[in-house]
């Protein structure tokens, strides 16, 4: 069977990674969460004091980029690869609202994007990959055989993310999550380098009114038609 590249882009909290993970499992493909890579770089920058609520020393982060080693290591129990920052498993800690509040600023930096895009292209070289993010169909794999662009209303997305974080035991308010979702979309869509836009050949899927199962079946069918 032919192996293809599947690019899943879209706004924050549209359920891209849940879908991408399930699709990869079903097809026996690798799954790469590129948002996790931007989040891990953000965690690194926060720990070094390069970014906080008052300051952002972009030049210091750029200088230190060679000190950042990112790896994906498969966790058989969970059934997907987790992200490691300099040999530390940071899969959980990078999902905090604090990291979410800084990540889109970090993602505006061309030097950061260049480093991560190179690694993403290398990880997907052999095809047989489902990659989710914001610029996969436009920049990372412009020749991907299947490109999906996921959307849903901001309220629905914030509600889903709020419940997810709450279930993980995080002490948060809905308003904070809503503000973060809207602000991230604004920054991601308006940045100069690789803004979040739908690739001209991507298929838009608005999942506001779709169940997870309906959405999965729809996209699996699209993938199977290409294989
Ligand atoms: O997908 P996730 O919400 O974890 O992504 C976190 C952030 O990382 C996004 O809001 C965006 O700023 C950045 N990102 C990006 N390009 C990607 C993936 C994520 O700029 N390919």
Automatic annotation (TrEMBL):
The keyword Calcium does not apply. Its EC number is 2.7.4.25. The keyword Ion transport does not apply. Keywords: ATP-binding, Cytoplasm, Kinase, Nucleotide-binding, Transferase. Pfam families: Cytidylate_kin. It catalyses: CMP + ATP = CDP + ADP; dCMP + ATP = dCDP + ADP. Residues 6-224 form the Cytidylate kinase domain. GO terms for molecular function: ATP binding; CMP kinase activity; dCMP kinase activity. It is an enzyme of class 2 (transferase). One of its GO terms (biological process) is pyrimidine nucleotide metabolic process. One of its GO terms (cellular component) is cytosol. ATP binds at residues 10-18. Its main location: cytoplasm. SUPFAM superfamilies: P-loop containing nucleoside triphosphate hydrolases. It is found in: Cytoplasm. Belongs to the cytidylate kinase family. Type 1 subfamily. This is Cytidylate kinase. It comes from Myroides guanonis.
